[in-house]
Amino acid sequence: MTEDNTLIVTDLKQYAYCPRVVFYERCLPRIRPRTYKMDAGSAEHERERQRSARRTLRQYGLPEGERYFDVRCTHSDLAFTGIVDEVICTADGVRYPVDYKMAKRASRNHRLQLAAYALLLQTTAPHGYIYLIPKREVITVKLTDKLKQSVIDLLHGMREMITREQMPAATTVRQRCVSCEFRRFCNDID
Predict the structure, then answer these.
(1) CATH class of this structure's domain 7-185
(2) What is the DSSP annotation of the chain?
(3) C or N terminus of the chain, fewer CB within 10 Å?
(4) Domain ranges in the chain?
(5) What percent of the chain has pLDDT above 70?
């Protein structure tokens, strides 16, 4: 959370991946180590934004529209904020969120992050897009009410965890722990 208790979209994505990442970040601030993977991802993300600005919308299946990059959004009712990598606005006023990922597949936490951007944009778009940078592939994600409600539920869970300062259980997918920057803090996992 920020100083005014506003949650951030990237925290939601991390919470869906492993709630402990958000616990360490929000309840034990200033201990997060920087990793090579973080820095490399940020640099590649910026290069991709520059490449995307030159491409057409054909890969998204949209005939035309205006593209906006690094769009800051806040939803005051949800006390939630984030920066959308790309927003495509069509002539009929529909805003499609696009999220770039340094991943080979779109995971559940990526889909939740995209739905969070849709909530922030308060868009009527039926879907959004995840662009997988390594594969140069667009994944279309339906922005269902169920997916958006999952975002809201996770926001409530995050707030409760932060308010109570209670460490959550570790992720059940132990493979995630191998490259986690907080691995040394989790003494209860193998």
Answers:
(1) alpha beta
(2) --TTS-EEHHHHHHHHH-HHHHHHHHHSTT-PPP-HHHHHHHHHHHHHHHHHHHS-SGGGT-S--EEEEEEEEEETTTTEEEEEEEEEE-TTS-EEEEEEESSSS--HHHHHHHHHHHHHHT---SEEEEEETTTTEEEEEE--HHHHHHHHHHHHHHHHHHHHT-PPPPPS-GGGGTT-TTGGG-TT--
(3) C
(4) 7-185
(5) 90
